[in-house]
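tool_call: predict_structure(chain=1)
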Amino acid sequence: MSGVWGKKIQYSIFGESHGAAIGITISGLPAGIKLDMEHIRKEMQRRAPGSSDLVTPRKEEDNVEILSGYFEEHTTGTPLCAIIRNKNTQSKDYSNLRYAMRPGHADYSGRMKYKGFNDFRGSGHFSGRITAGLVFAGAIAKQILKSQGIEIISHVHSIHTIKDKPFELTGISQELFDKLANSAFPVIDDTVAEEMKQCIRKAKEEQDSVGGVVECAILNVPAGVGDPFFDSIESTLAHLLFSVPAVKAVEFGRGFEISTLKGSQANDPYYIDNGTIKTSSNNNGGIIGGITNGMPIIFRCAIKPTASISQEQKTVDIIKMENTTLKVEGRHDPCIVPRVLPVIEAVSALAILDRL
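tool_result:
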């Protein structure tokens, strides 16, 4: 199982959704980094379940217990291991899923991969709950990056067919950054927030779900970071972004739209601003040749609708080898987009820190 990522700093995730705990081990962190535990707590709460009627009612505090690599408020330089204990599990809700394969989930592919020995309760190791450890690691990475002037921000770009305004590709004001950073449901255009929330509530009432798009910006990364071809900034970010459950597409800058432009429109002309080289447009999303050019790195991730819905669905009984139907029981998010924002920011921080 590929549960380890990273070259200069390695991250190893472990656990299952309904197991005793989930967690992460981080190897390679330098000694002497003072961890801002309040910042870490806030990042964990952004992802935690049970915070509103827009998300799953499963209530988990997601308190982090650091077992090693941390002493007197600082990293020690040895592997840092942290766990988050699972407390509010209802495994009986999944008893009918041992043989009935849930559409949209990894039940069938996981069973084929692990020959039926995988823990299927709450999706086991395939669960989005495993990303809590990534948010913890990302909170540390964001703290290190911020000390170098690099910051990361995201917003809900869309829910179902309802769209927010996009980021200005050439830059984000401090006012907008602060607004999004302090919002529980971050959008640029406040007038669409309630419409998005009502869309999520309606899907919940209909025992259905909706997806959306997250737009993220990484600011103040210096020019010259990244390596062609296999360690490009795009490929490093995409590797981690596609590791987040439910991410089905990623685009940088103008993304797919850039294919409709002519070269004279798509190219980003350079100019000098107070001794700093910038581009007047940022259609390429701050990356050229796989290497940063000093402009904001901006990308979007498409998040699929939550696979767990309470409507009756067609499926198969893997033991009897016959067609059947099932209704997924348990507590599920009608839309995971609001909770995935800190996960997208976290893995982005891991990617940039590794490339730096």
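agent: The longest strand covers residues 151-159. Proceeding to next step.
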